[in-house]
Amino acid sequence: MSENSADTLDIVLMKAGRTKIRYPAEVIADDGTVVTVRAPWAADGVRDFGFVRFEPGDVFTEHYWRDRWYAVKEVRTSTGVLKGWYCDVTRPAVRNGATLTVEDLDLDLWCSADGGTILRLDEDEFTQSGLATRDPEAASKALSALDELERLARAGAPLSPPPPSPATEPAAPSDR
Known about the structure:
- The structure is a single chain.
- It is built from three helices and eleven strands.
- By secondary structure, it is of the alpha+beta class.
- Strand 1 and strand 2 (18-30) form a beta hairpin.
């Protein structure tokens, strides 16, 4: 299955069985494994994490895998300056028509544009979520995904797949 065009998807981020956020995004590519979309910062106002600020005008190029337990969001300013990558540990993405749904598993990783700041985030929330008790297999996959993202970031490996070539079908991303 390959779907490429200037169509849109509703991105639905679920957390603890509820919709955390829902927003429209432009589809850049869908090769059957990875769905890549682009969307402006979807929340109201500025969110200052201390290590990065997300604000109106920021543009997120988001990569969702159907076979991996994470999503990677490349974050740029409105002028195109790369801020870094915000990585969500999630269950594999599910696309149903014009909706792409992912379940947030609380763990996150931030990697600054220069690779100098790599932070594991929300491990306390993950522990408090009780996932390890409710679904030990999912908890194990979530922790492995966070470890993989951190290993890739520290090795300087690309966190997001290369952009698709406009002249050809997008290639499936390597296993890195």
